[in-house]
Amino acid sequence: MLLTMNRIFLIGYMGSGKTTVGQLLATRLGYNFIDMDTYIEEKQFKSVHQIFVELGETKFRLLEQHCLHEIADFDHVIISTGGGAPCFFDNMNYMNEHGISIYLKLSPEQLAVRLGDSHTNKRPLLAERKGEELLRFIREGLELREPYYSQASFCVTGDVESSIAQICNFVETNKPVE
Ligand code: S3P
Please, what's the largest Cα pairwise distance for the chain? Predict the structure, then answer.
């Protein structure tokens, strides 16, 4: 299979580090970086939170799909996708057809620590969930999303530095000879 290495979609649950890893990876590989949520916000002149509240999740998912199709035309780019993006419409297939997808896999416990530390109202799906309720929500959500995430071209685990090293190695060893 010929993998398109010049467009890399980072996928994974909220809090899995897609943006942090994506920005550093883009610098390392000399690629551009796009955060899909930011892309949607700039196009809509609204925050993701506002879109959820004012237009609803269904409309957000349509906007997300539309933006994915636009971004999938860009080259030499690392794209940090929203946590739900692979799980709606044919988005997962679409990403795999237009580039490579990399799943940043963390356990529900690791995600709960990160999201418990950092989350504010910024992530509409998490709202005010904390502690055991947050962990239960992540466990259940991840179970539903895992079948989509597991269709990724490559999966990495571990901290930011080790994820970047694994991805660079994957890109280098699979890059077609030019
Ligand atoms: C969502 C994840 C968010 C954002 C929206 C919905 C999800 O992105 O797209 O709040 O359904 O998991 P991050 O994964 O970047 O937080």
Answer: 51
Predicted structure pTM score: 0.95
* Cα(129)–Cα(115) distance, integer angstroms: 10
d(CA 148, CA 3): 19
Confidence at residue 25, expressed as pLDDT on a 0 to 100 scale:
95
54 token code pair: 């004012």
CB atoms within 10 A of CB 67: 22
CB of 86 closer than 6 A to ligand 1?
Answer: no
Asked if residue 37 has its Cβ within 6 Å of ligand 1, the reply is yes
What span, in angstroms and rounded, lies between the C-alpha atoms of 56 and 71?
23
Distance 166 CA to ligand 1 centre (A): 24
Residue 38 has what pLDDT?
97
Q: What are phi and psi of 40, to 5 degrees?
A: -65, -45
d(CA 116, CA 135): 9
Q: Report CA(29)–ligand 1 centroid distance (Å).
A: 25
